Amino acid sequence: MVEWDIRKLQILRTLRERGTVTATAEALRMTPSAVSQQLTNLAKQVGVPLLEAQGRRVRLTDAARLVLRHAEAVFEQLERADAELAAYVHGEVGEVRVAAFSTAVPALVVPAVRALRETAPGVAVRVREAEAGEAYEVLAAGEVDLALSLAAQAPTVGDARFTRVELLADPLDVALPKGHELAHADELRLADLAGEDWIFGGSGPWSDITRGACEAAGFSPRQGHSAAGWTAILAMVEAGMGVALVPRMAAVGRSGVAMREVGEPRPVRHVVAAVRKGGEDSPAVGRVLDALRNVAAT
């Protein structure tokens, strides 16, 4: 019978996720030669080739993918074992590391932490701000226990590594200069702003969300200016340089900006939380998830 080595299986799984030996070594804080040696030893242990050359890179063999398919169940069970041990040893006391994108920190995470101080004072929450896509990378690497991200940036529901929890649909409002002719219109549709200069990032999730919302309304937005931070975006709107879609969670009051809700099709962005498969059985993680759900519901 094969002697399975969990550490070597973790290295193989990381190679599948990161794509190269160098990137795998960086993620696991190893040298590339150590990664190669461990994977060579694993191939000897299981008795089948796990890697094959593809130009200057390597790719996983079908046998390697078969091994990982079974290994995912092992990793899930180990997460459950960790969760049960934590519950046995610490009860309701524990530390939960949370990664969240910038607007989710003040809107969701901070209110949840405040609530937990009353309902579960023994649960400590350590917050790490991370871009929406990065949150899942640090979750997969074991650097955090729970990640908040946008559904558009999240792995699919079928991803065997994670359990996803839908938190809320965050409405997107339009930011207009206070003096704009539509700032006080009785009704406002995105299509009414098809001829405007739009302000959004040059790439990334917010660019995709803005373009997708406008295209669903029947037009392609003309990008007048590029910015990623809400302070910069709203300052430009206030100066009359263009209009922007702003998530309600991120809305920051500025005297020269009119925030308007738009009619159907009403754009939203979906916010999700995720834990590694099996990690939801940890009482402390469950407490934090419940607190986030309660904040999202209100």
Summarize the structure.
The protein is of the alpha/beta class and 298 residues long. It is built from nine helices and eleven strands.
Structure explained in plain terms:
- The protein is α/β, with parallel strands linked by helices.
- 42% of the residues lie in helices and 22% in strands.
- It has helices at residues 6-18, 21-28, 32-46, 62-90, 104-119, 134-140, 205-216, 230-238, 283-297; strands spanning 51-54, 57-60, 94-100, 123-129, 146-150, 162-177, 197-199, 222-225, 244-247, 257-260, 268-276.
- The strands form three sheets. Strands 3, 4, 5, 6, 9, 10 and 11 form a seven-stranded mixed β-sheet that branches. Strands 1-2 form a two-stranded antiparallel ribbon.
- It is globular and about 75 Å long.
- It starts with 5 loop residues before the first helix and ends with a helix.
SSE layout and pairing:
Layout (H helix, E strand, L loop, with lengths): L5 H13 L2 H8 L3 H15 L4 E4 L2 E4 L1 H29 L3 E7 L3 H16 L3 E7 L4 H7 L5 E5 L11 E16 L19 E3 L5 H12 L5 E4 L4 H9 L5 E4 L9 E4 L7 E9 L6 H15 L1
Parallel strand pairs: 3-4, 3-5, 7-8
Antiparallel strand pairs: 1-2, 5-11, 6-9, 6-10, 6-11
Describe this protein with a few key phrases.
298 residues; seven-stranded mixed beta sheet
What radius of gyration results from the CA coordinates?
A: 23 Å
Count of DSSP helices?
A: 9
The averaged pLDDT comes out at 88
- Which residues form runs of ≥5 with pLDDT under 50? none
* Most strands sheet: 7 strands, mixed
User: What's the number of extended β-strand segments?
Assistant: 11
The proportion of strand residues reads: 15-25%
Global structural class: alpha/beta
Instruction: State the end-to-end distance.
Output: 54 Å
Order of helices and strands: HHHEEHEHEHEEEHEHEEEH
Coarse morphology: globular
Helix content: 40-55%
